[in-house]
Amino acid sequence: MTLALGLAVLCLGLASYVVVAEIGKIRDRARRERLMVELKEFATIFENYHNTNRSWPDSTNGEVRVPRGMESVLASTSWSRGSPFGGNYEWLYSKPPAPPPPPTPVPPPGGVPADAAPETLLAPPAPDPSPQVVKPPPPPPDSTPMIVVTAYAPELPLRITAEHLRYIDQKLDDGNLATGRFRVGFNGWPVFRITDE
C-alpha cells in the first residue's frame, strides 16, 4: 500500500513537472509571437507618420517616452506598457547631417588680367584634366530609424534570451542578429530597423 502511494505521488510529481515545463514553453512562444506582432505594428505606424509628415519623429529619451506628435496614434497600442519580455520601447532616429554647402568659386590670384579678351571672360572654364568624383559621405549608422527595446529602468527588466532573439530573427528577418532589420544592439537589446537605408 505504501509503495503504491509512493509511486502515485512520484507519477503526480513528474506529471506536474512536465505540465509546468510545457506551460513555460507555451508562454515563451506567445511572448515571442507578440513581440513580432508589436514590432510590425509599430513599424507600420512610424512609416505612416513618415509618409504623412515627410519626416521621422524625434527620438524618445528618459523624459519623453512617446515620440512627440505620435501620442494619439500610439495610445491604443502597447508602446507605453513595454514589450512582452519587459523593458521599454524606445524610438531612435538621428537626423543625418546636412550636406555641406557648395564650394564658392575662388578668383585666380591677382584677379582677372587687364589685357584678357572679353570672350575669355565669358567662356566656360576649361575642364579639370584630373576630374575627381565626389561622392557624398554615407549617412552615419545611427541615422536609420529604429525601434529598440531597452531596460534602463530597474523596475522594468528585460527578460529576453539569445534563444528568443535568434527565433525572432529567423521568423522576422534574415536569421542573422548582426545584419538585416532585426538585430542585437547595445547591451544585447533587440533593435528593429524601420528601413534598410
Describe the 3D structure:
With about 200 residues, the chain is of the alpha+beta class. Helices cover about 35% and strands about 10% of the residues. It has helices spanning about 1-55, 70-75, 120, 160-170; strands spanning about 90, 145-150, 180-185, 190-195. The protein contains 4 helices and 4 strands, in the order ααβαβαββ. Helix 1 (about 1-55) crosses helix 4 (about 160-170). The protein has one domain.
The helix content, as a percent range, equals 25-40%
Strand content: 5-15%
Q: Strand order, biggest sheet? A: 1-2-4-3
Q: Tell me the overall shape.
A: elongated
**Structural class of the secondary elements?**
alpha+beta
Largest sheet composition: 4 strands, antiparallel
Topology, number of strands: 4
Could you name the ranges where pLDDT drops below 50 across 5 or more consecutive residues?
Answer: 133-140
Average predicted confidence as pLDDT: 81
The whole-angstrom Rg is 29 Å
Distance between the termini: 72 Å
> Can you write the helix and strand succession as a string?
HHEHEHEE
The domain count comes to: 1
Number of helices: 4
